[in-house]
Amino acid sequence: MAGYLDPNAANQEKAVVDASRKLRIGIIGTGWIAEQHIISYKKQPDVEIVAGADLIPGKAEAFFKKFGVEGVKTNYASHKEMLEDKSLKLDAVSICTYNRQHANCAIDSLKAGIHVLLEKPMCVTIDEAVAIMRAEKESGKVISIGFQPRLDANMKKIKEIVESGELGRIYYIQTGGGRRRGIPTPFGTTFIEDKTAGLGALADIGCYSLDMVLNAIGYPKPLTVTGYKSDFFGKDKNYVGYPKGKGAEYASLFGVDDFAAAFVRLEGDIILDFRISWAMNMDTPGDTIILGTKGGLRIPSTDCWNGTVGGPMKIYHEVAGSQVCTEIPIIPEDKSSTLFDKKIRSFLDACKGIGPVPVPTSQIIYNQAILSGIADSSRIGKEIEINIPEI
Ligand SMILES: NC(=O)c1ccc[n+]([C@@H]2O[C@H](COP(=O)([O-])OP(=O)(O)OC[C@H]3O[C@@H](n4cnc5c(N)ncnc54)[C@H](O)[C@@H]3O)[C@@H](O)[C@H]2O)c1
After folding, report:
1. What's the whole-model pTM score?
2. Do 232 and 252 reside in the same domain of the chain?
3. What lines the ligand 1 site, CB under 6 Å?
4. CATH number at residue 341
């Protein structure tokens, strides 16, 4: 019997995978995140990893060797060459490139008739997001965006609480989070250079904070954004988090945001107050709170985005005139399958047509519109309207 892992179900029963129908997989970009993909692909009985490409010569070959996957074709100078190799008969690709290479790799893959698991953030600009969705529509292929934290049971609980009606009508959300000193440069500069990353903390972890709350409330359309972003820490050659001896070089290469804040109006008269940080002189920019007419939910922040909530959530509400607080216990981690396993499995099921697209572009385009809206608003120093063209 074949079954699928419903990525949105509260209790996920173990599905029996139909291993007789194998999917031929390619990986584009073989850096850190690709490692999480291959670890999870290797656990799936219906997957054959057949190809990989990286812009850095020899990197893809070394990657598959490290993970003991043999017979993988890697002699491609770019993702395009790999996609053009019809002998591969690729069913799906994981796109694990840096942000600036998300849109073109996704569009080229969809145009080649291949399903896509695209790492987060969806891309850098709203125009790119629209182009991805147009390619998706024309191709009829599956594309899912790599937001695995939303597959965590505690994150799902947020959506269940909102949908239960316990909070009443939602009218205000404060979300975000971040780090005191945590600009991600352990593996080089691809997260901090404009030519590779395009956006900094905003796209790296801000997209998760937005997804946590927007997914819970059904992804209403953003209408206007007043955004701010800064780079005081990234541009400082004495920033303590840079590798020894690299401060001056990294500071001069830093071309993205290390902090961002925004005030966003959402459809349905909901206000979203957002702030995100890779570096700041504060322990946390605050918990996530969702205010409703019947109850308010406090979601403790984590000191770094690790894919779940930072502690037991609390609902503040009124019972017979008394102000009470209900604690929602933390749901323990599912030791049988990681969030990456769930992300890969639910994507494969969508490719096979036996499950929904786990994280659809129809939602994430609003996430992207806010990210790129913050960047645009910050640039011109004014509120902007979000206009997404017909797709
Ligand atoms: N879902 C998660 O938990 C998670 C965690 C970390 C990173 N990410 C995302 O994954 C992406 C990659 O992150 P990373 O840490 O692996 O970065 P990385 O810089 O270590 O690796 C990216 C790799 O892609 C290659 N590449 C870029 N463009 C290419 C192209 N057109 N064809 C072939 N190869 C190409 C680069 O040469 C590099 O080796 C980022 O967008 C990041 O936001 C997601």
Report:
1. 0.96
2. yes
3. 28-34, 53-56, 59, 78-79, 96-99, 101, 105, 119-120, 146, 148, 187, 190, 204
4. 3.40.50.720
